[in-house]
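quick one: manganese (II) ion bound model?
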Amino acid sequence: MHAHIVLLPGDGIGPEVIAAARQVLDAVAARFGHTWDFATHPIGGAAVNAQGEPLPPATLEACRAADAVLLGAVGGPRWDSLPPQQRPEKGLLALRRGLGTFANLRPVTVWPPLADRSPLKPDRVQGVDFVVVRELTGGIYFGPRHEADDRGEAWDTMRYTVPEVERIARLAADLARQRRGHLVSVDKANVLASSRLWRRVVSRVLAAEYPEVHLEHRLVDAMAMDLLRRPAAFDVVLTANMFGDILTDEAAALTGSLGTLPSASLGAARNRHGHPRGLYEPIHGSAPDIAGQGLANPSAAILSAALLLRHSLGLEAEARAVEQAVLATWQAGCFTADLAARPEDACSTAAFTRRVVAALAR
Ligand code: IPM
Ligand code: MN
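yep, here:
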């Protein structure tokens, strides 16, 4: 196969982890006989510095023409005082919206070698394997808003429409059907009108179209607690944009580090191979405090590349090979600074990546 992949390194540790993921994709190409061409474009603070805006039109155009897009991270203190429209985060939100990637899949897996790195007891995180389906182009991130004015007032609006909830409910239910058939939908229906709509629509779609999927509703505060009490109980978790943002940082902590969780953002658009033209990114941020020091954990970016192979290119065996190579690297005791038992034992970003590439070559 030949694929055209756009790389958006972004800010902070973004460029380091994207360089690592690219090496891994090259190793996949060599082993399985594929070819990729990569095009790199600016986004976030890097784009603000170079071109004065966080999502230059040429970057969005390039992403639209790609088979898949792999993004590092955006943001940092350097750009925190910019006006809202120029903030690096605004570039990422505009990209998600511009690509129509309404569904963000965040698989949460506590790989066996990580179980004793978790802040929870190992027996509690053993077997944790669920996917959060986060609605990504609606809700409070995109509703009407009002920046702080002279009277000292500012507001945001959480808004959902029936079609927005229907399409994400179907996607999550399809996924549950392929997995263990269990779906938990998370909302705040005891307080929020948009959550009451959400709950009603999810119930209707599931009852009418997915009778074989077991559906439960959970309030977001109770879910925050259950993620710590019984994380192994979940299969597919469906939730709104902001709840999903918050719960997946919590879920990432189960694995011992925010640096291990990948994500895939999918929409209706198809690429030249007939698969979804996805946007793939680690769920971690730009971590400016550790950028450029070889401390970054590239596993979330590498595992995001695996999701790219699976969802946008239909290359399941290749995706699994990457996941197994990361697992083998951890099994061999190679942990980056965020996961290492003692700092002096840590693998650098480059050393970790070399191990993954070597495991793939075997
Ligand atoms: C994430 C990030 C983003 C989000 C930020 C950088 C805009 O936290 O992908 O989880 O809130 O969606
Ligand atoms: Mn987040």
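The pocket of manganese (II) ion (ligand 2) is lined by residues 245, 249, 283 (CB under 6 Å).
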